[in-house]
Amino acid sequence: MDMKTVLSIIDAEKVEYVDFRIVDLLGRQHHVTVPAYAVDEGTFKNGVAFDGSSLTGYKSIEESDMVAMPDPSTAFLDPFVEAKTLNIVCNIVNPDNTPYTRDPRGIALRAEAYLQQTGLATAAYFGPESEFFLFDSVRYDSGPSGSFFHIDSEEAFWNTGKEGQNLGYKVRNKGGYFPVQPTDSQMDIRNEMCTLMTKAGLHVERHHHEVATAGQGEINFRFDTLTRTADNLLLFKYIVRNVAAKHGKTATFMPKPIVGDNGSGMHVHQSLFNGDTPLFYEQGGYANLSETALYYIGGILHHAPALIALTNPSTNSFKRLVPGYEAPVNLVFSKGNRSAAVRIPVAAVTPKASRIEFRTPDSTANPYLAFAAMLMAGLDGIKRKLDPRELGYGPLDRNIYDLSDAEKHEIKRAPGSLEEALTALEQDHAFLLEGDVFNKEVIESWIALKRADIQQVERTVNPKEFELYYDL
Predict the structure, then answer these.
(1) What is the DSSP letter of 52?
(2) What is the DSSP letter of 99?
(3) Would you say the pTM of this structure is higher than 0.85?
(4) Which residues form the GS beta-grasp domain (predicted)?
């Protein structure tokens, strides 16, 4: 879709407002709305001005003027606004029209341009599986006189004895995978989400209830190129959250909102193509993978400790990344082991569908940064021929839980905390700087923002500490 098409849609659909959307460094979307009569060719050529100092990770107040440049190919009609509104995703530029280097979408676009410059492939495709919870209530507070959180769901196993109207069919702990109605009470809501996603341009493949209790779900949409998939993921989250709100529920992509049950991940499928030729397939290889694919895996696993600072960037991420909850904490690759950081799908896979699945990430990641970083790690593995078999990353097709302690000790693990991951990123980020995709300023800003998160969490008194220490 180009500028002229968008302008014709505004006229034909009698659009009243155009909503221009940008994303901050952390991955939160922001928007500014303009009456449709004020939007013309000049808007697309000159952009929309905004204050960059008010966005997390952007400019300071003395140099705050910035411009959002609309990308007409991202336009879609917003189903949640009463006045007919067209939403458009924007790139961010400086007042002199040069790209702003901290713009996450700009980083994703530079990663795609760098891929083509290397001559290794013409396109990288990404397909995230973003899990979420739909709660009926969420309350939390943190202050000098106390801190707490409380969540609730009509599906939750802890409500089996709830008084009042209680119709049973609660989801058991770790018992939520694929149950039919009435145990799965959210099918109609997910159907509505999928319908709106399809109307907005996403190609929905399937949806289902997930493993955890209390309303965990998953909706899969078709893969696309790197930047387009990141755009689609933000659109996906927008629709999930707003449909949930419409039904009096609240959606969260937080990795570990429930103690003692599975968390929500974002398994990311990825592959490289040269034109129409898939580069990850080779019949007869391990899981029918090519050497190119194995080197790509080598890059992902070699740089995984640093990558995880971008793919799992919350302190809560590391409450999910613990053994025993299907968590991919083991830095190995496997064609069947779901506790491996990299899994190779083999069921019903054609040559063009041959891909690798990085299972460690979660949806607190900024998708533009996370996908770009994964691509850069994989390309580094290809360029340096980092063979994961020679580097001790597998393949490991045995049940890890059946291994001896000595065998388990040989397996490399993902970082155990956000601080460990940030330290790894400080020490290992040269691969991200290739082709000026990332720069040191972006990485330093990211690390500073995330260390501020850690400091806030560490300095807040935890209710569990009262249980452990109050009577000592």
Answers:
(1) G
(2) B
(3) yes
(4) 13-97
